[in-house]
Please model this.
Amino acid sequence: MKRCRKQIYLLPEQNEELSKLSLATGRSESSIVREALSEYLTKVRKKANTYTNPLSKLLELKVESEVADGSEQHDRDIYEAPGRDLP
Model:
């Protein structure tokens, strides 16, 4: 299984608990972190499925535009009706 390297910073208490758990279970610290992260992601994903974030609906919208850079003249691109110029 291919893995991606990540760097995280733990609080000293978290680091100590992780080290103790690793010694007590005979598992690597990275294995424990991966399992904990998987459980967290599963829990959050289920929670996210029950709550619809209003911004997620915006991401689903498909807006056709000839604009290559939406940061320039965004008011025109958002509010202007096709073929009509803003004052």
In short: The radius of gyration is 23 Å. Residues 9-56 form a domain with the Arc Repressor Mutant fold (CATH 1.10.1220). Residues 29-50 form the longest helix (22 residues). Helices lie at 12-25, 29-50, 54-60, 74-79.
